[in-house]
Amino acid sequence: MSSKCEVCSKGMIYGRRISIARSKVSRRAKRVFKPNIKRVKVLVEGTPKVLNVCTRCLRSGKVKRV
Predict the structure, then answer these.
(1) pLDDT tens digits, residue range 37-61?
(2) What DSSP line would sit under 11-66, residue for residue?
(3) Mean pLDDT of 10-14
(4) CA Rg, the chain, in Å?
(5) Cβ atoms within 10 Å, residue 8
(6) Can you tell me the distance from the alpha carbon of 31 to that of 63, in angstroms, rounded to the nearest whole number?
(7) pLDDT, mean over the chain
(8) Is there a contact between 40 and 51 (Cβ–Cβ < 8 Å)?
C-alpha cells in the first residue's frame, strides 16, 4: 500500500510514544502515524482510475467513486 494520498498528499507523520508512567526519566520511543489509505476506483475527468485515497477525502466528497 502507498503511504501517501494522491488527492491531498497526506503522508506519514513522525512522533514519539511516551510511557503512561511519566516518571522523571520518562521513557520515549520513536513511532509513525500512518494515514488511513484505501485503493479506490475514482472518476477523474470522466474516466475511471484507480487511486490511493485517504478516507478523509472519500468522506468529504473530494473524489467521486465509480
Answers:
(1) 999 999 999 999 999 999 999 999 9
(2) --EEEEEE-SS--SS--EEEEEEPP-EEEEEEEETTEEEEEEEEHHHHHHTSS-B-
(3) 96
(4) 17
(5) 15
(6) 30
(7) 91
(8) yes
